[in-house]
Design goal:
five-stranded mixed beta sheet, 2 domains, 303 residues, Methane Monooxygenase Hydroxylase, Chain G, domain 1, alpha+beta, single chain
């Protein structure tokens, strides 16, 4: 016969106390009754031993690519050898976690710890899906980095960096919590062992997925850094092109300015002053030197 699994959605204190598999520590009760946190202020994921039960906080990442947002579905749990209590919270602007997949995976006959594993496995899968979506965003940015305006590229780079920092703050504690189960470092006082060796092997599979997610996150960071460096190099190249054009324009104007300044000097012994073609001579020199410079700079692609 399977263990008891009680699932609550946004319960009040009375519902929680009735459904608790054993007396819960006040801190665990307050954590389960706390309202969903603001985005970016989610609680740290954990799996910790209390007297007679294991208390846990799990965060499932949900990406909405069309709206370019990420939010987290919080699931709290109290686990004993024969019973599991889960508390699902409705995030602001999102949907609560749907346990239908977990129920289908464990079937009618289940161990409480196996249900907890399925929840953790869903958490690990949610991070892998989130990193896949993040990779898609980075690919899109790479494809359009030469087309999009600079402000849009900078905003997208900033948003991706913010998302990765947020993912890291939630992924790392989740990975560490599952690692404690794999290493058999969750010792309860006054209760039967919850995580048997076969269950720990299952948690090891979930831990491997979380490690893959961590490696994918590091890869995403490298990819974003590569896009940022390419964009900065592109901006520097554009600035160099602008400087070349400004230099060419300044050089083209320099010789005519010199010639005008030369013949604008008030000296009586300048031979061109008494020459009947002196005016046209100065114009010819200006036009020829300007044309030569324009041809030269065009060949060098500075103009």
């Amino acid at each position: 016969m399977g263990a008891t699994w009680t699932d609550l959605l946004d319960p009040d204190r009375a519902d929680l106390e009735r459904a608790a598999p054993c007396p819960l520590h006040p801190s665990a009760v307050e954590a389960m009754l706390a309202r969903p946190a603001e985005p970016g202020r989610e609680p740290r994921a954990t799996l910790a031993a209390h007297t007679g039960y294991v208390f846990g906080i799990l965060l499932l990442a949900v990406a909405v690519p069309d709206e370019d947002i990420v939010y987290y579905q919080e699931v709290d749990l109290a686990l004993t050898r024969d019973a599991l209590l889960t508390v699902r919270k409705t995030p602001k602007g999102g949907e609560p976690f749907d346990p239908a997949g977990v129920k289908k995976a464990v079937g009618d006959s289940r161990e409480a710890a196996m249900v907890a594993y399925q929840l953790v496995d869903d958490v690990a899968e949610s991070y892998l899906d989130l990193l896949d979506a993040l990779n898609g965003e980075i690919d899109e940015l790479e494809d359009h980095v030469e087309e999009w305006p600079g402000e849009k590229i900078r905003n997208r780079l900033s948003a991706l960096r913010h998302d990765m920092l947020h993912i890291r703050r939630t992924l790392a504690p989740t990975r560490d919590a599952v690692r404690r189960v794999v290493d058999n470092r969750i010792d309860m006082e006054g209760g039967d062992e919850v995580f048997t060796p076969p269950i720990e092997l299952h948690f090891a599979d979930a831990y491997d997925k979380l490690l893959r997610a961590s490696e994918a996150l590091e890869l995403c960071r490298d990819l974003v850094a590569g896009v940022r460096d390419y964009y900065q190099a592109m901006v520097a190249q554009e600035q160099n092109e602008v400087m070349k054009r400004l230099t060419a324009v300044a050089s083209v104007l320099l010789l005519p300015t010199f010639i005008v300044g030369l013949y604008g000097q008030n000296f009586h012994d300048m031979p061109e002053l008494d020459w009947s073609f002196g005016y046209w001579w100065s114009w010819a020199v200006i036009i020829v030197t300007t044309a030569v410079q324009i041809v030269y700079f065009r060949r060098k692609r500075w103009l």
